[in-house]
Structures are given as C-alpha cells and as structure tokens.
Amino acid sequence: MATTAPEPTRRDFLFIATGAVGAVGIASAIWPFVSQMAPDAATIAAGAPVDFDLTPVAEGQIVKLFWRGKLIFVRHRTAEEIKAAETADVGSMRDPQPDSARVKAGKSPWLVVYGNCTHLGCVPLGNEGAFKGWFCPCHGSVFDTSGRIRQGPAPTNLPIPPYEFVSDTKIRIG
To answer: Which CATH class is domain 43-173?
Structure first.
C-alpha cells in the first residue's frame, strides 16, 4: 500500500506567499534599527583606527592604505634595506634620525610612514631613487629605506603615523 502526498492547494501557496512577504516586511522594518548602530562615515573619516593584516605583504613590498584621508605606506623591508638604513651616516642628514627611532623595537622589518612628500605633498614612488627608498618625481626629493630625506628640497623625513602592533602579524593605525 503506497501512500502519496496530497497535491498542494491554492491555500498552501497563499500560506507560503504570505509568510515570505511577512518575513521581508519584518526584515525591512528591523534593518534601519540595526544599521544605525554602526558608526557613520564622518566618524570613520575623523580617525577611527584602522587594523591592517601584515601576513600577505611580501618582503620588499610597499602597501598603500588610507587613514583619516591620508596616504600611509607600510613597507616590509628586506635585510639589505634594514642594514642600509641602520648603517647610514645620520650626522650628514638634513633631518637626522636613527633608523631605530623610526620603527618599533623588535619589528625593524616593518616601516610605517605617511605617504606624502614633506616638500609639497606629492606622492613619492617606492623602491626608487639613489637610496632605493622613495623618489618624488615632482621636485626630486629622495628618501631612503627608513623614509629619511637624503636629497632634494623636502625639509623633513616622511612622518610616522601613530600605530601599534596588535599581534605579530597585525598593526592598528590610529
């Protein structure tokens, strides 16, 4: 004796359709209340901290990101770049600053600097120039692998934004 399921009726269809429309209506009514809990764009632009995962950044690579509407360079320096930055003659620089003051202690492969030339705010090109740091093509400023001004009209080094290491592979800017 085989049992068969009864054929769906118009009433079954109406129950399903009414339930679907009701679910969409409830979701539409709740959505504004849920979305208003997130910070608005003005708050985020005003300086909410930005977390950045360092894991995918290859050695020798420079990554660009934005915080507070300003360009930030995150550079994963090679051993040669670190050595060149640490052994440079700080006394001969226009804005003398040792490499150790520009990176976090124990995290010398990672350099985090603002990405605008301190001369007129142009965006310098990475891995360029005589010191293989940054080169500003607009007016010829040359920065080393620690973001220190070495040649050209820029008056100061590339500034360092406020940042901290949250873990070995993550930083928080701001």
So the answer is: mainly beta
